[in-house]
Design a protein that fits this description.
Elements (H helix, E strand, L loop, with lengths): L4 E7 L3 E8 L4 E8 L5 H16 L6 E7 L2 H8 L5 E6 L5 H4 L24 E4 L2 E2 L5 E3 L3 H14 L4 E5 L8 H13 L4 E4 H4 L5 H32 L4 E5 L5 E3 H6 L7 H17 L3 E7 L4 E7 L2 E2 L1 E2 L2 E3 L11 E3 L3 E2 L1 E4 L5 E5 L5 E7 L18 H7 L17 H16 L3 H25 L9 E5 L3 H12 L3 E4 L6 H8 L3 E11 L5 H21 L8 E10 L6 E5 L9 H16 L8 E11 L17 E8 L5 E8 L8 E3 L2 E4 L4 E4 L3 E5 L5 E5 L5 H13 L2
Parallel strand pairs: 1-4, 4-11, 5-6, 5-9, 9-10, 13-23, 23-24, 30-32
Antiparallel strand pairs: 1-2, 2-3, 7-8, 11-12, 13-14, 14-15, 14-20, 16-19, 17-18, 21-22, 24-35, 25-28, 26-27, 26-28, 29-30, 31-34, 32-33, 34-35
Helix pairs in contact: 1-7, 2-7, 4-5, 9-14, 10-11, 10-12, 11-12, 12-13
Length: 710
């Protein structure tokens, strides 16, 4: 019998989310458990066991489990990776320190550079030199390679090795030969080649990417091996797949080989889920707004696709300062992330001002209201105090929240020192975190020349719907969409993302002097590599979709943009079409073009993917009155208002109600003020229109009368 059950698992800082989908039985079931940081697989196994019990499914019936992880990001941030050595071209072992030879803050006289993950003592140079066109000037010093790696392994006890030679992106021969020598001496040593991890121009970024790949590789190997063993003990016999930072899905073996490509694995799933919902909803422009326990993440979704970029800076010392982190050449979904989540801690700083985040209460001990030992007030605690959350219906009533402990903690830690009331302190927490989210979103859109007023806000995550209304008002957005199962929608992203491979080859040339035979050869090589991986993952050759693109710039520019080009074979006759595509893409991005300047191609890219599976979030509405009651909720400038509370599961397509209101489901809650009207569309999305309601006073009076009625 064909296995049709698939499960998506998203490990967050506070909760681990699950979605089970069975195509044959038409079942979609969600789940949520507190994350177990010391042993992440524990929460995964417990959550899967519960889903199987609820749906009457055996572990042996699961076709696949798709998983995303923040392990790589956390390892880089916390500097808890392996002891790594680096073999570099002789005379160039200091490329990591030299970097771009620029300061990320020219006004700071005490500027601290981004910490290196490979100290100078573990970086050794070896003889051998390739020229920019890939030809060999000096043969590789094979004895030098053997001597250097012996020093690194036997004297310094390295756990992994990175190899990054000059111009290896054009010709990987020296790096591959060095790896053969290393494996001949130490077969078990993990080796990362820059020519395979990031075969692109720019020595600093390519070397850093190879080093980070080696830095996290041993830990990722151990984590995935443990997870595989735990799932096997559960009786799982299907395929374990891993989410890539660019939104695709890959195999465990590929994830172990190139773990740096998973650095934004967890956040990518949310953007893919948002794109999946945007397409049938007919939303051409959306801002996905994902707020979990530790962070808030915003991403542009246009024409049903998230924005991508091909570089990423990890572990920044200063969040919005480019150059303060480790630059990586990896494909990631282009999003902005800030330390403002439900578990973000509020505190009074040394000068008497309230700050929120980036410290998080995480799942251990968690917010004060969780009754798990937390003592510092968090965003979730403030939301509870302001009426946005029902203390008796958190996680569908499975986790009762303590509002009395929250009042005590807010009074002791915030209200007392500031000389204000507890509710005022809670409003301050919410105001700070909402303004931070709005500022980050404005900046993200402004960098792309976009106006937030032209976009719909797509809110999800446990805390996203709670703060969506305030964020939309701050950004002057007129429409909010909250999907069914919003609190666990990121886990859905793992199931709707397509198995995909991104390949790149560096070949720098002016458009007038392209060697088209060389271009066609590298695309043939990339297609063969990508197809082999997708076929190995169980795909059908006839279903593989291929897209060609190239990074281009005007001659003299320092950075490039990615342009879609026709799938080849390419020749001189295609030069005009490629030039026109570049000019059009450049004009759309910068609202200008440059005349009489040559055009240069830098990197040639291939995206290969298999079809994604469609999943319906529709359900049979509960046959009961959707109105649960009325409670007082604080709506910023509108103040405290009595708001109708609706059961999300009893609402059906076509229902339309006026705010102020709260719509509750098991994993999340959405509240919005008297200036809103909300409805349920045919996909069971909650659609909120701002500024569409009657006068505020009339709305306030109607709800108050309803609350007072016997």
């Amino acid at each position: 019998m064909r296995k049709t059950t698939r499960i998506g698992v998203d490990i967050g800082g506070t909760f681990t989310d699950f979605v089970l989908h069975d195509e044959a039985r038409g079942i979609t079931r969600t789940g949520k458990r507190l994350t177990t940081p010391a042993q992440p697989s524990q929460a995964i196994v417990e959550g899967i066991e519960r889903l199987l019990a609820e749906t009457g499914t055996r572990a042996g019936q699961i076709a696949s489990i798709v998983h995303g992880t923040t392990l790589i990001t956390n390892t880089v941030l916390e500097r808890t990776g392996a002891k790594v050595g680096l073999l570099a071209t002789e005379g160039f072992r200091d490329v990591l320190e030299m970097g771009r030879e620029s300061r990320y803050d020219v006004d700071d006289l005490f500027l601290q550079p981004a910490p290196l993950i490979v100290p100078r003592s573990l970086r050794l140079g070896v003889g051998g030199r390739l020229l920019a066109d890939g030809s060999e000037r000096t043969p590789l010093d094979e004895e030098g390679v053997a001597r250097s790696v012996r020093t690194l392994v036997e004297e310094h006890r390295i756990e992994a090795l990175a190899i990054a030679f000059f111009h290896a992106y054009r010709n990987p021969a020296h790096e591959r030969r060095a790896r053969q020598i290393v494996h001949g001496l130490y077969p078990g040593l993990l080796v990362s080649l820059s020519a395979e991890v990031a075969p692109e121009i720019r020595e600093f970024e390519r070397t850093t990417t190879a080093c980070v790949n080696a830095y996290v590789q041993p830990r990722v190997h151990g984590y995935l091996d443990r997870l595989g063993a735990d799932l096997a003990a559960l009786g799982f016999e299907g395929d374990l797949r891993i989410m890539l930072s660019g939104g695709g899905i890959t195999t465990v073996d590929e994830a172990k080989r190139y773990p740096v490509r998973l650095i934004e694995s967890g956040p990518a799933a949310g953007a893919m889920a948002a794109a999946f919902v945007a397409r049938p909803a007919g939303e051409p422009r959306m801002v996905s707004f994902d707020v979990g326990g530790t962070t808030a993440k915003m991403c542009l979704i246009e024409q049903g696709q998230p924005h991508l970029k091909h570089d990423f800076e990890a572990g920044r010392l200063r969040k919005f300062k480019q150059g303060s982190g480790l630059p990586l050449k990896v494909t990631v979904i282009d999003m902005i992330e800030i330390g403002s989540g439900g578990g973000s801690i509020a505190a009074v700083d040394a000068v008497g001002l309230m700050k929120v985040g980036p410290r998080s209460a995480s799942s251990v001990p968690g917010p004060v209201c969780y009754n798990r030992g937390g003592t510092e007030p968090t965003v979730t605690d403030a939301d509870l105090l302001l009426g946005c959350l029902d203390p008796a219906f958190f996680l569908g009533g499975e986790m009762a929240l303590s509002i009395d402990k929250v009042r005590s903690a807010v009074s002791e830690k915030l209200a007392g020192p500031l000389g204000i009331g507890s509710e005022e302190a809670a409003r301050g927490i919410r105001s700070i975190v909402d303004e931070s989210m709005a500022a980050a979103t404005r900046m993200h859109l402004a960098e792309k020349g976009k106006d937030p007023r032209a976009y719909t806000l797509f809110a999800f995550g446990g805390a996203g719907p709670v703060h969506a209304y305030a964020l939309a008002r701050l950004l002057k957005m007129r429409r909010i969409i909250v999907p069914m199962g919003a609190g666990v929608i990121s886990a859905l992203g793992f199931l709707v993302a397509a198995p995909a491979v991104d390949e790149v080859r560096g070949y720098v040339t002016s458009l007038e002097q392209v060697d088209w035979d060389h271009v066609n050869r590298i695309y043939a090589e990339m297609e063969a590599s990508a197809s082999a991986l997708l076929l190995g993952a169980g795909g059908d050759a006839g279903q593989i979709s291929l897209r060609w693109s190239v990074d281009m710039r005007y001659l003299g520019q320092g950075f490039e943009i990615t342009v879609d080009i026709p799938r080849g074979p390419l020749g001189a006759a295609d030069r005009g079409a490629i030039r026109d595509a570049f000019v059009a893409t450049y004009a759309a991005r910068f609202d200008r073009t440059v005349r009489d300047v040559g055009i240069e191609a830098i990197n040639w890219r291939l995206s290969a993917s298999l079809p994604a599976q469609d999943i319906s979030l529709a359900h049979a509405p509960v046959q009961s009155d959707p109105l649960r009651g009325v409670r007082v909720v604080n709506f910023a400038e509108f103040g405290d208002l009595p708001a109708r509370v609706y059961d999300r599961y009893a609402l059906k397509p076509g229902d339309r109600f006026q705010g102020p209101a709260v719509v509750e489901e098991r994993e999340s809650s959405c509240s919005f003020g008297p200036d809103c009207v909300f409805s349920i569309d045919r996909h069971f999305n909650l659609v909120i229109e701002l500024g569409a309601a009657p006068e505020v006073a009339a709305s306030r009076g109607a709800v108050a009368e309803e609350a007072a009625a016997p």
